[in-house]
User: Fold this.
Amino acid sequence: MKKSLIALAALGAFAGAASAQSSVTLYGVLDVGVSKQTNLDLTAYGVSGSSFHTPTRIGIKGTEDLGNGMSAIFDLQTGGIGMGDGKSGNTGGGISFGREAYVGLKGGFGTVKAGLDASVATYGFGGLNLSVISTSDASAAVGIEPVMWYGSSRRPAFVSYTSPNMSGLDVMVGYTLKGTMEDVLTPSYDKASTQARINYAAGPLSVAVVAETARSATSETAYGVGAKYNLGMADVTLRYVKSPNGNDKGLSGGVAAKFGAATAGLQLAKNSETKDMGIELFANYALSKRTTLYADFLQNKKDVGDDVKKLGLGVQHNF
Assistant:
């Protein structure tokens, strides 16, 4: 781990040296919390050796001006860093850019990227989650969160195109190749997959439509449609999602109100197939633009089996 951090520091030094010809930025999120989950009968410091609210991560991204309004872009992002012990959860304990690893071109035509990147559904629906997709997310708990289709927000061997913003409207399409590195860990992903989204945002209204074709012989095309509306003091959302396995579909929605530096909200999700109900309460307080205290509570009321309750408190710092 020490060698990995030294290597990362060296990359940061290189970033500074290269800034005269291009823009290179070291960025990240540090998230640490204490959580209690009833069905595990334990108190966890962080979650699975990582973070509680959102994944702790460090990344290096940059852009180079190629002239004529076109730029080359890249992003390398690592996750799996345990805030309880500072160790990496990646194989061998070293740094592995398993969250982002792509190169692209950006210009008046839009943006083209190739490599490992967030899924089209993540880019489309991420902004409609009022708690910013925490580990206490009600929709994910009952299986109707597009960001977690196939258990991950990432897509390997991925090529995508995003259109320019046209009066609030933009489109993104992506293609995940068959026979990717992910198949080594999950052989059932034996199909190439096409993804698409349409997003519209103007004034107080945001709308998203997302879809992803089946990635295995046992899955189905997944889709979701949702909207968020800003009422001034509060945001409200409503979403409908059908997940890839066909057994998870349903409605979710919520409200989040601002009180100065504080935000408090409620999100509900109902799986119409399993009848599971997710109830999420969350609150946060911004100490600054970069540092936030948060509290999350989740109750997953199961139609079959024991209910799950989860409570977490923590702090998140962005740089």
Summary: The chain has one domain: 2-31+48-251. The first strand starts at residue 23 and ends at 37. The chain has four helices and 17 strands.
